What does this fold into?
Amino acid sequence: MAILSFNTKVHFGHGERAQLVNELRLNNIKRPLFVTDAGVKTAGVFAQAIESLGAIPGAVVFDQTPPNPTEDAVEACTATYHANQCDGIVGIGGGASLDLAKAVAVLCGQSAPLWEYCNRHPQPRPITKAPPVILMPTTSGTGSEVGRSAVIIFRNGIKAGIGCPTVVKAAICDPDLTIKLPPMMTAASGMDALAHCVETFCSPAINPPSDAIAMDGLKRLFMNIERAYEDGTDLHARWNMMMGALEGAICFQKGLGAVHSVSHALGALGYHHGTLNAIMLPHVLRVNAPHISDKMTTMATVLRMPADADIPTVFARLNERLGLPEGLSDLGIDPAIFTAIAKAALADNAHKTNPYALTEADYIKLLNAAL
Ligand SMILES: [Fe+2]
It folds into this structure.
């Protein structure tokens, strides 16, 4: 067991969005840059998130976060920060807005290109002079509010993380902000969170506290995802989904696996992260199963199923009930790209902590099975 650290201060609960006013004061932020996306704003969720601040004439809002944050978007948002002489960042939205907010904080105090801070760079630069960041998730998925990196699509075509574990000064997790999340996004982002818990638990790294958190998160997500999907106003389900997503991201410092190495590779082309994870999860578990039979038994027990339950099939059936796409071809993905995707997956950090070391040929076979 190498390092175990849980970095982020978290406010959690219905109505906790009211803490924003206190956190701005505690972090001495007088002119925040709000980072969000157009959908969150149009749905009224942005206004709901900042209601504790009252009227803010001249609020600086960047609402052009793309579905997958890019280096271009980070630079555009950083320019907005500087042009308006902001002194802190508040990210409000799904994982894209939260990751963008973190990456902007990294770039604000630096002059080197963003790639030089990426964890895939041979010698990532240290992050200095980053302004304080406060994050308010409006989905229950990535857990970016407590994750230790910002995942960005760089201009070189690589989708990878920038390690920035200290930039977030507070996460404010209010399940009320997820009530308007549409069913399909509830399902896809929820399956991302569920994949975090499963892949973390299956990772061969030794970290029992992370394992315990992963299994608690898995139980909450599995027991509540269909309730939240069917009735978005189910507050009990929304609370548990948000807690499961938080737990998934707290624990995945132990390492993810081939679900995420593939979804990062395909995600660089613009496909939705959670949807890719939902599709890949049963297939990856099926090839991993011979290497993690004891963990499969534990997961079956956690899910209150017979010890010999076929866990990959359990998650495939769950995808069906949630109306998620069955295969990669449903997203229009062409198998002609599988060799390139396999190479990109091999280079991804999540590949290193899959229960066994897939080869390029294994990845191509896996992708074809998931087609
Ligand atoms: Fe993920």
